[in-house]
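Summary for the steering committee. The consortium agreed at its last meeting that each partner would contribute one worked example illustrating the joint modelling workflow. Our contribution is presented below. We chose a case with several input lines so that the handling of multiple components could be demonstrated. No manual editing was applied between input and output; the record is shown as generated.
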Amino acid sequence: MSKMAKIKKEKKTLWQRFTAWVNGDAAEQPLLPAEPPKPPKNKGAKGKKQKAQPTRKEWMGLSRFEHFYRVCAVVIGVAIVSVLMVTVLQLPLFGSPDNPAVNEVVERYVEKGLEETGAVNMVAGMILDYRAFDTFGESSVLFLAVTCVTMLLMRDRNNTTKEEDLLTAREHVIEGYEEDIILTKIARLVIPCALVYGIYVVLNGHLSPGGGFSGGTIMGSALILFAVSFGMIRISRFFTYATFRKVTSCALMVYAASKAYSFFTGANHLESHIPLGTPGAILSSGLILVLDICVGIVVACTMYGFYALFTKGEL
Amino acid sequence: MEHLLINHYETAAVILFGIGFLNLLLQNNLVKKVIGVGIMDSSVYLFLASQGYIEGRLAPILVGEVANAADYINPIPAGLVLTGIVVSVSVTAFSLALIQRLYQKYKTVNFDEIVQLARQKGDE
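What follows is the complete predicted structure of the assembly.
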């Protein structure tokens, strides 16, 4: 009777718990469903001790399960590796030209790529023209990841205590006071070179190895070096959370808009009105340069955002 | 056996995949689990890159005016690896952020201890 009532009560509260969890004020809600508490066998100090530590029987069962789990894991791992090894035995030889992966798609990309996309670098032509929507998805995944990390790690008054605030304030004071001479002098030399090199890699994405992703990473690392050597306060003069948001979403929007335009005019290569230019020139290959710049901006901001969020919890 | 030696990139990729997978299953430390996933990711990139290579051909950057498909290696695995790297960076960052939050709450990154602590909190 009492059990039924209990279950009913729990069911009633389940919805309330769910709404509390959705609203985010579920501070003392357990992450996992709690096991029904066992009635204490004997009162006093002994019972308390038993509650704190699992009994011998439970412990034996747990260790047996652990043992079983480990053996199972090794068996599954070895089985997967051996199945994959058998597959490797059936694969074509390394570097052989009659690999079935080299089919008519590759032929088409290589032979018509320059004509249709205008990019000398075939990989850039492939990922930013033939498969540009896929790359848009990738950039969106990066943006989504940095948004999730911001949600989880961004410091605000809800998830920081006063002590942590004091600690960060002290760190800021130390950063403003002490300046590592070797680090700052070297950083002054290296950061402009790294930035220029990153921009070069982005702008030459359709002509040489590189592109938005690699160049963006280089620019992001230059930003990270700036943050490490000069401190977060200096970098927040020109790069704050607001600029991060604006720049990243603008870049993604430009990407989406330009590719939607291409979707209407040149989808399936009906007829594109975007001039392709002479292959090999920096202003060529239609939209690829624009898309590369957008991707580079998103990647650079994301890399720096990851660093800032993981170290300080702020942007 | 000879086949495995000639295809040594693929063999290494399979072994790395196994190492990463076992790391994922057997490690108790959540950060080490994420490292295991990273090893699995890299093994997949190694496999894809080795499948794209063709002996004696050039990288897929055009030289000259006429493009002959028999002169260049397969450009598709390069694009696939690029996608994979981006996704793995995002997933790694997200899981590390989750782990950091778990550490802030439970003061440990050991998976079993976190489960135990969560159960204890539920009991009280």
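The radius of gyration of chain A is 29 Å. Residues 39-51 of chain A have pLDDT under 50 and may be disordered.
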